[in-house]
Write a structure and sequence with these properties.
heterodimer, A: about 325 residues, mainly beta, 2 domains, globular, B: mainly alpha, about 0% strand
Chain lengths: ~325, ~190
């Protein structure tokens, strides 16, 4: 079944058929869905079949195909989230949905640096969100128990037979500027005051202002060749603080990227090699906003446009995909 | 497709930062980064980190770019090298097995030799004792013979003396008889 936006009635029919679903939609639609084998997060932004769009009247559906009838839906709070690895199957994958700006969001993002067994199976997912022009509070839903959470995460763990494996791919259209300043932070944190720029202690908010740095650009760390973004949420000049959508880590060096003149052509270039059999995908709302993606089509990829992406760790401004392949 | 043997030095070099090859598979990039931090902060020992990484590379060897990444790190012919190394290891194991068997046989032989040597030395000792005894017996025999000779001599002498005595007695009896006869004749 194609992953795309479906009408409310179509989704109700799928739930009643006993399908296992991962959903994304406006909370007013999700609240009306019947109990069933589904999990969901709130968001009204999507990469649909024809284009990227804002839609509060349809529900995005990823159908979970079962290969050996084994799956489980789990709810995690800020303390139990570290058990997510223990709950995975010997071979399989997990889709996780987390509410933003909460303790569980922070704990998961920071703990993944040390979580043993994190890479045994792919963990993908997203951070729920809301209409940026509303006061709606992002939420996650557990359709199995008909519960709605603002501070808990929900996950679906899926088992795979020995002849299959799941894999995660990411598309980050930003590349670090090799000749740019080296930025290092003193703590693992979502908010910082001072940092080291090329070995000198500097206030980061002042550095951004004095150097006219575009705060729409992410900071990029090199993870053995993978470029991992951390996006700036707010530059508070008055209190000389900078906050982020994901944590910066003490152990990493960060660089600012080169400007990307055309997001959609860069996405097209990067996604053309992705397999078209994506089981799950998501992209960042900042790419949607800064790249002006509304009405434009990203080839090969459908999914929610979110407040944060999960590909093992919490990522920012990154497109994430999950595929299941034969061994 | 097989992941490189965990005994290969490149795993350690990769996780200690001695080598920094260009890797493309996302899982591999993230896992290496986490393992390096865990080793540096002593959360996970290097050996366990290598074992985990190698087994996960085997699990995801068919993932995008993974096989190419392994060839970049371990060389394009790493599988053949590992196969050869495996065969060599097998040969070494067989040789070791043979060596052990040979050693154990040798030990058994040596034990037997020791046993025989002991037996031989005991035999030698016994033979010497026997010889000594024979010698003593022989010496005793000589003495005995001498004693016997002496005894025979004595007996012979005694017999001779007795015979002589008897003869003497006979002679004297005869003489007496003769004299008696002579006397008797005269009287007649």
């Amino acid at each position: 079944m194609t992953s795309k936006l479906y009408t409310f009635e179509e989704v109700v029919a799928m739930i009643k058929q006993g399908m296992i679903l991962s959903l994304a939609a406006d909370e007013r639609l999700l609240k009306k869905l019947p109990i069933g084998n589904w999990i969901a997060g709130t968001i009204p932004y999507f990469m649909d079949e024809d284009s990227c769009k804002f839609d509060q009247n349809k529900i995005f559906v990823n159908q979970i195909e079962l290969y050996n009838d084994e799956y489980k839906i789990e709810i995690y709070d800020e303390n139990s989230i570290e058990n997510i690895v223990k709950d995975t199957y010997k071979n399989g994958y997990t889709i996780l949905i987390i509410p933003p700006f909460t303790k569980i969001h922070q704990n998961y993002a920071i703990q993944t640096e040390f979580l043993d067994g994190l890479y045994n199976n792919p963990i993908v997912g997203w951070v729920s969100g809301s209409d940026l022009n509303s006061n709606d509070v992002p939420k996650v839903f557990c359709g199995k128990t008909n519960e709605i959470f603002e501070n808990k995460a929900v996950a679906i763990h899926v088992s795979l037979p020995d002849n299959k494996f799941a894999q995660v791919n990411i598309v980050n259209i930003f590349k670090p500027n090799a000749n740019g300043d080296e930025i290092k932070f003193y703590n693992d944190a979502f908010e910082v005051s001072n940092c080291m720029i090329n070995g000198r202690d500097v206030n980061f908010a002042e550095y951004i202002m004095e150097n006219n740095i575009d705060s729409k650009l992410p900071l990029i760390a090199n993870y053995s060749g993978a470029s991992i973004n951390v996006c700036i949420k707010e530059v508070d000049i008055e209190n000389k603080k900078v906050s982020f959508f994901a944590p910066v880590f003490k152990s990493k060096s960060y660089k600012l990227p080169q400007q990307v003149p055309n997001y959609i052509s860069k996405f097209d270039e990067e996604t053309q090699n992705l397999p078209s059999t994506n089981l799950f995908s998501c992209n960042c709302v900042l790419n949607y906003l800064y790249g002006e993606l509304e009405g434009k089509n990203i080839k090969n990829v459908n999914g929610p446009i979110t407040f944060g992406e999960i590909a093992y760790s919490l990522l920012n401004q990154t497109l994430v995909t999950l595929t299941v392949d034969n061994i | 497709m097989k992941a490189p043997l965990k005994t290969r030095k490149e795993w350690k070099q990769l996780l200690t930062g001695e080598i920094n090859p260009s890797i493309k598979n996302f899982f591999f990039q993230m896992k290496i980064t986490q393992a390096k931090i865990q080793i540096e902060k002593k959360i996970v020992p290097l050996d366990k980190a290598i074992e985990d990484l190698q087994s996960l590379c085997q699990k995801f060897i068919k993932a995008n770019n993974m096989y190419d990444d392994l060839k970049t790190i371990f060389g394009p012919n790493y599988e053949e090298e590992d196969k050869r190394s495996d065969t060599k290891k097998e040969e070494n194991t067989i040789n070791l097995k043979y060596d052990n068997e040979w050693l154990s046989t040798q030990l058994q032989y040596e034990k037997q030799i020791m046993f025989y040597k002991n037996q031989l030395s005991l035999k030698e000792k016994a033979l010497k004792e026997k010889e000594k005894l024979i010698q003593l017996l022989q010496e005793d025999n000589v003495i005995l013979k001498k004693k016997n000779n002496l005894l025979y001599d004595s007996i012979f002498k005694i017999n001779q003396l007795e015979e002589e005595e008897l003869n003497e007695q006979k002679k004297s009896t005869n003489e007496k008889n003769w004299s008696f006869f002579k006397i008797f004749k005269k009287t007649k």
